Each structure stands twice: as C-alpha cells, then as structure tokens.
C-alpha cells in the first residue's frame, strides 16, 4: 500500500506558514507523503501542483481572510480539470465559524480551525479519502 499523498498549500498573500509546517510534519509523521507549496500560491498553481504530483488530498492553510474566495476557486479549478472527484479538499486556519457552511457548500470537505488537534485532521483524511490507496 502506498502512502497517502497530501499537498499542503498556502493560497493567497498570507505570509505566515508556521501552522502549515506543523501540519505538514504531522502528516509526514503519520506516514503520509507531503508536498509543500510554500507561500503565496495562486489557486491555479495549487491545482497544477496537485495534478502533477497526483495527490490524494489538497490541504490549504489560510489566515488572510480571503478563504471564501480562494478555497472555492481551487475546488472550481479542480472540477474544471476533471480531478475533483479523486481529491479530498480540506482547509484550515483562522476561519470564522459562520463561513464554514459556505466553504462546505462549495466543495471543501472539512475546515479545521485553531485548536484542532493534528490527530483529528489525520483521522479525517484517512476516513474520507476519495480514492483507494493501492
């Protein structure tokens, strides 16, 4: 069985990546293969990296307040490329509770806010993968 491949992405102009690096390390320690995009990625760059790396999960971390625009745009582009049905898309960061339903309606499978344990996120990924890992 191959490891779960996770893309950890930082969309938009957010310049803080400590949380993304913490979650990337937790994913790696859980046996996942992690690809980290680095800071200031456009939705288009995130989608192209997800396709090139054949990832199972796109995990986006955002603190800038642009989550209602950027996260659904990544989903839209994944759908346009025909790969959304194979990729679990999750988000995390400083996202107000009142914005979470909108994000879920727009294709984000789950949103993890500050204080969520890395174990919770890892268990969610393992339980909700869209394609089997053979």
Automatic annotation (TrEMBL):
Cofactor: adenosylcob(III)alamin
Matching InterPro entries: Acid_CoA_mut_C, Cobalamin-bd, Cobalamin-bd_sf
Domain of life: Bacteria
Organism, as annotated: Tepidibacter hydrothermalis
Keyword Isomerase: yes
Record carries keyword Glycoprotein: no
Name of the protein in its database record: Cobalamin B12-binding domain-containing protein
Keyword terms of this UniProt record: Cobalamin, Cobalt, Isomerase, Metal-binding
Ranges of residues in domain B12-binding: 3-132
Gene3D superfamilies, sorted: Cobalamin-binding domain
């Amino acid at each position: 069985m191959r490891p779960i491949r996770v893309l950890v992405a930082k969309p938009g102009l957010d310049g803080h990546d400590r949380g993304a690096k913490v979650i990337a390390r937790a994913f790696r320690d859980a046996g996942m293969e992690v690809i980290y995009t680095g800071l200031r990625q456009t939705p288009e760059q995130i989608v192209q990296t997800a396709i090139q790396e054949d990832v199972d999960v796109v995990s986006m971390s955002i603190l800038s307040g642009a989550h209602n625009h950027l996260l659904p745009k990544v989903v839209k582009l994944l759908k346009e490329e025909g790969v959304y049905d194979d990729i679990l898309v999750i988000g995390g960061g400083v996202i107000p509770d009142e914005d979470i339903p909108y994000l879920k309606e727009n294709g984000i499978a789950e949103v993890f806010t500050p204080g969520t344990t890395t174990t919770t996120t890892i268990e969610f990924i393992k339980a909700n993968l869209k394609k089997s890992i053979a």
